[in-house]
Design brief:
It contains 4 helices and 4 strands; from the N terminus they run E-E-E-H-E-H-H-H. A hairpin with a 7-residue loop joins strand 2 and strand 3. It has a 4-stranded antiparallel β-sheet with strand order 3-2-1-4. It is of the alpha+beta class. The two termini are 14 Å apart. The chain has 2 domains: 84 residues, Double Stranded RNA Binding Domain, CATH 3.30.160.250; 37 residues, no CATH class. InterPro entries: HicB-like, TTHA1013/TTHA0281-like. This is Antitoxin HicB.
């Protein structure tokens, strides 16, 4: 799997009419769903929200080291963070300073400077 895909164990437990989900390795990752499908989707979203602006990710606990209480189950939740970022990130306007000659060349060659900057930042942060 590529570097931008993370997989974490999630602990599921029935909580009244909802299914409570905890992702122990991702601080603050607690959510719930109306049914199992919804709970899994909410777990994916919780992981994405909490890790979308990170470049270092928590290490996933091995399933054999997860200790469940009665009526709890565990499942692995994969999240493609690159896809999550593409789907959920908005663009913002930034003012940048570049040498005049580079600006002229970029205009002549119809280069999208914002696109080049975005690609360079992704390479720099390895995302």
């Amino acid at each position: 799997m590529e570097k931008q895909t993370v997989i974490y164990p999630a602990v599921f437990a029935k909580d009244g009419k909802y299914i409570l989900v905890k992702i122990p390795d991702v601080p603050g990752a607690v959510t719930q769903g109306e049914d199992l499908v919804d709970a899994v989707k909410m777990a994916e979203d919780a992981i994405g929200i909490l890790l979308e602006d990170k470049t270092d990710y928590p290490i996933a606990t091995d399933l054999k080291d997860i200790h469940l209480k009665k009526d709890e189950t565990v499942a692995l939740i994969p999240v493609d963070l690159a896809a999550y970022r593409r789907k959920h990130s908005k663009t913002i306007r930034k003012s940048v300073t570049i040498p005049d000659y580079l600006d002229r060349i970029a205009k002549e060659q119809k280069v999208n400077v914002s696109g080049v900057l975005t690609e360079a930042l992704k390479l720099r942060f390895d995302i």
